[in-house]
Amino acid sequence: QVQLMESGGGLVQPGGSLRLSCVPSGSISSMNAIGWFRQAPGKEREFVAALRWRGGGIYYADSVRGRSSISRDRSNGAVYLQIDGLKPEDTAVYYCAAGRPITSTATTMGGYTVWGQGTQVTVSS
Questions:
Q1: Stretch (H or E) spanning 68
Q2: What are the Cα distances from residue 62, in Å, to 27, 48, 82, 107?
Q3: What percentage of the chain reaches a pLDDT higher than 90?
Q4: Which of 36, 40, 82, 109 has the most CB atoms within 10 Å of its CB?
């Protein structure tokens, strides 16, 4: 059974940076994308970024576009999310998810079948 393990969260001052990691255990060869989502207290889970390794494609939410980067290490399948210029509104639990997203842009939760436990990101001075 495939599991995803996130790490890299923590407390960061506004303007700082974080690099989140998502490492799969087990084969994800039947899947074609990994995405990052986040959920702030009292809010719905929302899309942050996604990467498709079949067919290509990298996608970002408007809220992080231009200050974030998603990448994949082909040697171990790990996916990384770098976010710069962090803002208090970036505070949330960040989840990575793997699967076969039903939308071409991989921006909705449909089709993501494996989810990690999440890592807390807090942006505060």
A1: strand 68-72
A2: 31, 8, 15, 11
A3: 77
A4: 36
84-108 pLDDT, tens digit each = 999 999 999 999 999 988 888 888 8
Token digits of residue 77: 């399948």
Q: Which residue, among 72, 66, 64, has the nearest Cα to 32 in the 3D structure? A: 72
Closest CA to 70 of 58, 53, 62, 78: 58
Residue 10: what residue type?
Answer: G
Amino acid at residue number 111:
G
Question: Which residue, chain included where needed, has tokens 């998603």?
Answer: 70
Bridge partners of residue 36, in order along the sequence: 49, 96
Can you spell out the DSSP letters for 5-64? EEE--EEE-TT--EEEEEEEES--TT--EEEEEEE-TTS--EEEEEEESSS--EEE-TTT
